[in-house]
């Protein structure tokens, strides 16, 4: 199947600029806005986008501010949180998709933090998509993790925002967690991790109440050896929604032909692409 590769230049209403990579099959049957994990640039998902495009799904990979093609970098002088990601950047990517492929069924999905924010975006704007896809995603709430992680996670969740405040941004590459993260993002993330509740500094909407009104069908992939997002954390995230139907597929190394951990699937994304695309095949195939 012929695929058209594009880069769409975008700008948020506060001046933030980035590029939206797109992979467009000749006759797409749906569009997907894919949200990356914490600290991961959009380009890392292009093999995944190509695999889905070969199955007839148009894929647009969002770029988080502060990474890849974004013109911003987190620092003491440049900070943002979930509020900007959810209400400034994602609407611009959604509008670009609507212009490029009007009338096509929309799917939103994400990896890790991207999956969480896909849920939150649907909570804020239910008409943003008709389906939700999650891969290696789940709420970071410490009580949703198995032992022994529950013993040390609360300490980590307090240390990381403290470090980000002290340094002006989180030096993720140095400590081996995330990238150079805005302290506002880490503050919002840690608040959920400690309380189990979603909120965004400066956002008036009650995200917890809004999440309970998300009713789109959900297909989620949990990876057997993923300690960062075990299936228990995914189930906790899904418990906040009220989907019309949901299906969780657990995949192991035999399914993927690569380690079934948080990031290795990006090296061999074909099996996950086929699993997600099967969600559409049930009704459209």
UniProtKB/TrEMBL annotation:
The keyword Cytoplasm does not apply. Gene3D superfamilies: alpha/beta hydrolase. GO terms for molecular function: hydrolase activity. Keywords: Hydrolase. Residues 27-168 form the Serine aminopeptidase S33 domain. InterPro entries: AB_hydrolase_fold, Hydrolase_4, UCP037442_abhydr. SUPFAM superfamilies: alpha/beta-Hydrolases (SSF53474). Pfam families: Hydrolase_4. This is Alpha/beta fold hydrolase.
